[in-house]
Amino acid sequence: MLLHAADAVQQGDRKILLRMVDTDVLVLAVAVFHHLSSMRPEEQLEVWVAFGTGINLRYIPAHSIACNLGPERSKALPAFHAFTGCDTVSCFAGWGKKTAMEAWKACPEVTSAFLSLSCPLAQITDRNMELLQRFVILMYDRTSNKTKVNHARKALFSKKGKSLDLIPPTLAALYEHMKRTALQAGHCWGQCLVVRPQLPSPEEWGWVLTAGSPSGQPFQMSQSLVESLYDAGATKDVKEGVPVSRLT
Question: How far is CA 123 from CA 103, 107, 148, 169, in A?
């Protein structure tokens, strides 16, 4: 849909209307607006989104949203949307988009990580991992000064008495979540204006493909990681009722 919109802009159209019922496309319309506008900078571009059906139909000015966010945050929006929960990437249980947006405002430096993940990339860098860990911590605890999710988990659980459902995932699980975000936001959505996009294998980006599940299952942890957790003393946590899945 966005590829056709780009073609329309190149042909001289300055008012684009996209009809959809999918939030993902709205996010992408905002993300690519500044790029589309740069194709013919001498003319003002408007991208309208007809969102919903029936009495719920609304006309949303994607161009206004993009201008309010600015070029960087607009381009970073796909990774933010995927990272905080979309059709193919899980959300953080109990935390919605509004809370995530407030965390983004409190941690503006994470924009560079979202920008990186919104484009096709070869791997998740250490810097991106640091920024995204801090962002996740602020979603769960706005007053925390922790920079590592594993440390934040321990503090929230042992010192603040938070239940397991209200503490962030471990770094190992978060890393796989980052990879699934990069696949969806960068490799898939990041090539929405490419005629013939080249996509990597999902197995390289946080997914497991099996004969019984051709659509894939999210990769959680390896057997070697389970063994290392036990060797590091995770057995005590498991005995106290912490599910192994929450340790990864």
Answer: 24, 23, 20, 20
Contacts of residue 100, Cβ cutoff 8 Å, sequence gap at least 6 = 80, 84, 92, 139
**Bridging pattern class, strands 207-210 and 213-218:** antiparallel
DSSP code at position 87? S
Question: DSSP alpha helices (H): ranges in the chain?
Answer: 2-10, 23-39, 62-69, 71-83, 97-106, 111-117, 126-140, 149-158, 171-181, 223-229, 235-239
Residue 247 has pLDDT above 50, yes or no: no
Q: What is the pLDDT of residue 248?
A: 39
Q: Which residues contact 188 (CB under 8 A, 6 or more apart)?
A: 197, 199
Across all residues in the chain, what is the average pLDDT?
A: 88
Tell me 134's DSSP state: H
Tokens of 37: 């506008």
Q: Summarize pLDDT for 70-125 with one digit per residue, the tens.
A: 999 999 999 999 999 999 999 998 889 999 999 999 999 999 999 999 999 999 99
- 244 CB neighbour count, 10 Å cutoff: 15
Q: What distance in Å separates the CA atoms of residue 116 and residue 79, rounded to the nearest whole number?
A: 8
Question: Which residues, 6+ apart, have CB-to-CB distance to 33 below 8 Å?
Answer: 45, 47, 62, 63, 66, 67, 74
Residues in the chain: 248
